[in-house]
User: What shape does this take?
Amino acid sequence: MGLFDGKAPFDINGDGKMSASEKAARDSYYLQMLSEMGNEKSEGFNEKQEFVQRLLDANLDIKELEWMDKETRDNALRDAEIDPNEWEMYMF
Assistant: This one.
């Protein structure tokens, strides 16, 4: 009863058919997988939101920062005590 032995991995009784309980087990498994994947993605999203909030708290205009040359932007970020490498990480 595995992915590669020719049987459906959720055909628990091995009759070749998916009963309602086997379908429920399959669906529960896939929903759990998707929710875990969503949690990993949302962590990165939350980190980016926190970074953007720090920019706003420092009264930095994100659009202006985008149009600045790298050296000027890095100086503005350093003045606000924000690591310029974070800009590269979160904004690109």
Q: What stands out?
A: Residues 6 and 16 are 10 Å apart (CA to CA).
